[in-house]
């Protein structure tokens, strides 16, 4: 097993981290378990440091119709 973690990009709204896993022998379920364990370790480390990853957000407005007018709170 080998895992390499790179901080590979800095943007105005994101910090990209690239995680590469090498798992031998190639056993799918074992590999996925290892990958999940590494990802949890990264998130736990962020949590202990008070780092909260930003989640993508999207705001959608739909067109209204007679029975349900669209009102926006502004």
Brief summary:
This protein is α+β, with helices and mostly antiparallel strands.
- General form: elongated
Q: Which segments are poorly predicted (pLDDT under 50) over 5 or more consecutive residues?
A: none
What value does the average pLDDT take? 81
The number of helical segments is 1
Query: Would you count the extended β strands for me?
Result: 2
The ordered string of helix (H) and strand (E) elements is EEH
Structural class: alpha+beta
Largest sheet: 2 strands, antiparallel
Q: Using only CA atoms, what is the Rg? A: 20 Å
Percent in strands = 25-35%
**Helicity, in percent?**
25-40%
Strand order of the largest sheet: 1-2
The N- and C-terminal alpha carbons lie at a distance of 54 Å
Please give a structural write-up.
- There is one protein chain.
- The protein has 74 residues and is an alpha+beta fold.
- Helix content is 28%, strand content 26%.
- It contains 1 helix and 2 strands.
- It has one helix spanning 28-48; strands at residues 2-11, 14-22.
- Strands 1-2 form a two-stranded antiparallel sheet.
- The protein is elongated, with a radius of gyration of 20 Å.
- 0% of the residues are buried.
